[in-house]
Amino acid sequence: QVQLVESGGGLVQPGGSLRLSCAVSGSIFTIYAMGWYRQAPGKQRELVAGITWGGSTNYADSVKGRFTISRDNARTRVYLKMNSLKPEDTAVYYCNVLTTTWDPTASWGQGTQVTVSS
User: Assign residue 105 a region: left if phi > 0, alpha if psi is -120 to 50, beta otherwise?
Assistant: First the structure.
């Protein structure tokens, strides 16, 4: 099993930046890829960025060019750098382990709240 703890959220003005961090522990050597999801009020949870341990990345169209996902070589942390934030980026952000078909597989953590507002 894998345990996940998200951090780094907060309140930021439109156009600002934040970096989210996901601490990964447990059976990390079984992981194929990691992803960042978000869920806004009244909306379904969506995958915004994913990264394989080999370094291949994928992004939702809504965040391409603004968000960057990365991971450390020890496979213990995954990051999401968010630039040019917009009010529509407001959501609770979660990380998760991804299968080879890019589906979430671990239990969801508590997430970290990101609020973009002036």
Answer: alpha
Mean pLDDT by 10 residues, the chain (118 residues): 94 98 88 94 96 93 97 90 98 94 89 97
| Cα gap 29→87, rounded to integer Å | 37
SS3 content of the chain, % helix, strand, coil (to 5): 5, 50, 45
CA distance 13 to 101: 35
**Residue pointed to by tokens 């930021």:** 12
Angle ∠(91,95,99) on CA atoms, nearest 5: 130
CA of 106: how far to CAs of 3, 37, 39, 41, in Å?
8, 13, 17, 22
CA 117 to chain CA centroid, Å, is: 20
